[in-house]
């Protein structure tokens, strides 16, 4: 049984005669194929200068725990405890915690005590 030669980084695989002809794309065919894929500094600048085609109507502004503490006057531990006890809704991605204005306002409204 004849062993096949091992392919290494120095071994070059050459097509055999019965493999058929090798077709190379002409420059015109390549330019037509990639015409919609504009690249380069001008294309990147144009992509960022145009507004996105479908931008959401409203984007939620997200606040960190420190920003919420500064705005409300509560301590860091109070806000973190409310998040841990699920009294205050939070968005977490990995170790990053963000809060929305709507969720903070709802939390404050739920804990508001009316005077007698």
From TrEMBL:
Residue span(s) of domain Helix-turn-helix: 62-111
Region (Disordered): 1-36
Top-level taxon in the UniProt lineage: Bacteria
Cross-referenced InterPro entries: HTH_17 (IPR041657), SinI_DNA-bd (IPR010093)
Amino acid composition bias (Polar residues), ranges on this chain: 1-14
Protein's UniProt name: Helix-turn-helix domain-containing protein
């Amino acid at each position: 049984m004849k062993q096949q030669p091992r392919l290494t980084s120095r071994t070059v695989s050459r097509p055999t005669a019965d493999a058929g002809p090798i077709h190379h794309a002409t420059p015109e065919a390549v330019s037509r194929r990639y015409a919609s894929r504009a690249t380069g500094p001008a294309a990147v600048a144009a992509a960022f200068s145009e507004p996105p085609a479908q931008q959401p109507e409203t984007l939620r502004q997200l606040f960190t725990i420190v920003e919420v503490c500064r705005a409300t006057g509560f301590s860091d531990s109070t806000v973190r405890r409310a998040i841990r006890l699920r009294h205050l809704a939070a968005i977490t991605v990995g170790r990053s915690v963000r809060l929305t204005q709507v969720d903070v306002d709802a939390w404050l409204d739920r804990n508001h005590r009316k005077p007698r």
